[in-house]
Automatic annotation (TrEMBL):
UniProt key word Acyltransferase: no
Keyword field: Metal-binding, Molybdenum, Signal
Species whose genome carries this gene: Cellulomonas marina
The protein, known as: Molybdate transport system substrate-binding protein
InterPro entries in UniProt: ModA, ModA/WtpA
Residues the entry annotates as binding molybdate: S69, S97, V200, Y218
Family label: Belongs to the bacterial solute-binding protein ModA family.
Range of residues in the leader sequence: 1-39
One GO MF term attached to the UniProt entry: molybdate ion binding
A GO BP annotation: molybdate ion transport
Any Pfam family: SBP_bac_11
Amino acid sequence: MSPHDPGRRRHDRVVAAPVLAVRAAAAVAVAGLAACAGAGDAAAPAGDPVAAPASPELAGTVTVLAAASLTDAMAELETAFESRHPSVDVVVSLAGSSALAAQVLAGAPADVLVTASTATMQPVVDAELVEDLPVVLASNTLEIAVPPDDPGAVTGLADLADPGRTVALCAPEVPCGAASAELFALVGLVPAPDTLENDVRAALTKVRLGEVDAALVYRTDVIAAGDEVRGVPVPEAAQVVTEYPAAVLADAPSPAAARAFLDLLTSADGQDVLRDGGFLVADAATS
């Protein structure tokens, strides 16, 4: 199913139309990235990004602020980009999207911002701190994570509203928390969390360490955890979709490298990395 299925709800739909409108433009732009390489602004060529030839004109450090749910994908993309541009050092800072946006608004130096909702990106856009309108890279949905032995016998969302079970949720100010709140409202349940975490990976860690019976995280986090957790699908989660916008920042210290990194994210190779991690990507971005 397409990540932009009109039947789905989006917890960030209050965002101004210009940000959401870039999805269509992004789909068109991605198809031409591999053929439109330019000095300091080269798209990743088709094939293995690690094996792509180096571009000696790029050098320095590119700082990427990325949502915590992108941890594994960003690690792979960082390696690929540095292999292609050996004179560039990619520094990825991972945190909750609202915290990342606050850093940018406070003047923290960074080159690229990738959040887990258009709602958390919007204040940065409104402050005119992006070089161009953000591009939506992919989307995600929620899933319940439980320990492998499932001590709480969790079978669905109703169990996360049971005070007799220990539950971790994301704090409401971060995208996974906002999506969780919408999902519970959709099914008419009031959750009973024992802890509210500042980002989705912190909630997942509670499950991995056996500190809670369950956590509501993204499906990509369940995939990334492997055998350390077990996923409990939530059918209704398909109606609450989290989108991931990315933008080069207006005051990027390394603007050329920043644009090249965004090119990699939107290229077929970058989209393959996201898809392999369980993210939903637009079909048009695979060409």
